[in-house]
Amino acid sequence: MTNDLTADGPVQAQIAEEFSDRLDMLEESGQVSKLARRLTEMALADLATDLGVRFTEDDSAQFVTHLAIALTRINRGDPAVEISAVTEEEIADRVREREAVSRVMRDCAPVLERAVPEPEISYMTLHLCGIVDVQAERTGQDG
Amino acid sequence: MNEPRPIRVVAAGVDAPTMAKIAQDAGGGRVEAAALGDMQGARLVKKGQADYYIGTCWSGGGGALAAATAILGAKQVGIVGTPGMVVTEERVRTMVGEGRIAFGFAYEQTTTAIPLIIKEILAHRDARGE
């Protein structure tokens, strides 16, 4: 396993516990590999630390599912997904989130034995931006 | 004669409340739709407390139907559209006719896919006298 994913233990533990039902379900149904599951948990923990977000089942379930399935697909060597203009437009100015995802996926690449294609990075970024926006809105309301 | 029971649809994914509203509107009073989490929605279908599942994700691939596939089984689900695959009446009709009960598509196809899916479900039910 790569040593470049650097999130701290408590964050990783929270992620593993929060999404255990979901990832169990996906792994047991054969849609997600054990390797992709482990990388998903580590990538989420790294992104949480890097961006200061807390991933929960309530607001991050789709992202977690997407990430685990995408990493499984990439590891398997499936054809790259197509990206739509709508998606690229949505994330055009989200440099911070895209760079965070790109960095984490660069760290995953040696374990996956493949580079993560840019369209996959775009979809991951899109999901992440939705979570960041919801949490920012919530923080604003609380503050 | 008794009114037929409404068809119960659960919607999950990107902007599920809007998906549910589109489904309900497309059903013309014959469809009751609710927005739920993907695992909860699929479990309701599994238990027979809902009839159909519609799911979206940004790519229309894995995420839209991942929970439904795990809970209902691969033979019960079908992807009707992705950014590279237009949603067609023929594909939806075929999948409904095969008895599939969970349908996935890309979020950007929501407004075209859902009315088509509902139309084909209603036609399928009518043909079977349900």
From TrEMBL, chain A:
Gene3D superfamilies: PRD domain. Pfam families: PRD. Signal peptide: none annotated. InterPro entries: PRD (IPR011608), PRD_sf (IPR036634). Residues 27-138 form the PRD domain. This is PRD domain-containing protein. It comes from Nocardioides aquiterrae.
Automatic annotation (TrEMBL), chain B:
Pfam families: DUF2620. InterPro entries: DUF2620 (IPR021238). This is DUF2620 domain-containing protein.
